[in-house]
């Protein structure tokens, strides 16, 4: 099983910071896992971003995951991909990228989680926990009870899959979420829009790890 960090930081298109600046800030705050999520640029601009971000991540020993854009595999120093399409065929994706690349998926139901585990996903983002401006969607929100029950079902089925809560999570949500048995937390807006980016990142990191 591949190493999966417990706290994932996700970049986004925001006016006050470029993706590269977000990554620089996150690495300076101690980030060990960054998901570059940019769905608004053509390939040449994506690769320009990714190459700059990969250099920063390499300097800090940080894992770089790219949201979707799996066609860019092999064109930059990318350690893995996170596929947001909940209907994506992970068996086919795994054949496409090979075993060394980390593949993460998104899930909203226990059935999603079970399928991802069977098809070879290395981890999954499970949510949304709350509404978020950074990634609008129409999926039902998941409660603390939903997380607890889902993780219990996976355990009963002897399925070992790192599951991370995601979607509008605030620092005061982390303790209750971690008590569900969740593997970790993924965050974007609560760090990006904080008054102090680095302090917010470190507060989350410590809350998840404690």
Automatic annotation (TrEMBL):
Keywords: Thiamine biosynthesis. Pathway: Cofactor biosynthesis; thiamine diphosphate biosynthesis. Residues 15-191 form the Thiamine phosphate synthase/TenI domain. Coiled coil: none annotated. It holds the Pfam family TMP-TENI. It comes from the Bacteria. The keyword Nucleotide-binding does not apply. The keyword Membrane does not apply. This is Thiamine phosphate synthase. InterPro entries: Aldolase_TIM, ThiamineP_synth_sf, ThiamineP_synth_TenI. SUPFAM superfamilies: Thiamin phosphate synthase.
């Amino acid at each position: 099983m591949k190493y999966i960090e417990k706290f994932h930081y996700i970049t986004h298109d925001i006016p006050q910071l470029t993706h590269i600046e977000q990554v620089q800030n996150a690495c300076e705050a101690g980030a060990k896992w960054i998901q570059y999520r940019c769905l608004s640029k053509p390939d040449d601009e994506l690769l320009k971003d990714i190459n700059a971000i990969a250099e920063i991540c390499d300097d800090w020993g940080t894992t770089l995951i790219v949201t979707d854009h799996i066609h860019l595999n092999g064109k930059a120093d990318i350690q893995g991909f996170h596929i947001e399409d909940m209907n994506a065929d992970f068996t086919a994706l795994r054949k496409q990228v090979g075993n060394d690349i980390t593949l993460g998926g998104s899930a909203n139901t226990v059935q999603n989680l079970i399928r991802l585990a069977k098809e070879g996903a290395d981890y999954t983002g499970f949510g949304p926990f709350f509404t978020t401006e950074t990634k609008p969607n129409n999926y039902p929100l998941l409660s603390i009870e939903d997380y607890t029950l889902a993780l219990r079902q996976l355990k009963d089925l002897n399925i070992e899959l790192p599951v991370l809560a995601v979607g509008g999570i605030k620092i005061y949500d982390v303790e209750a979420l971690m008590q569900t048995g969740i593997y970790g937390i993924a965050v974007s807006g609560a760090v990006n829009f904080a008054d102090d980016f680095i302090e917010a990142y470190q507060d989350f990191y410590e809350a998840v790890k404690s």
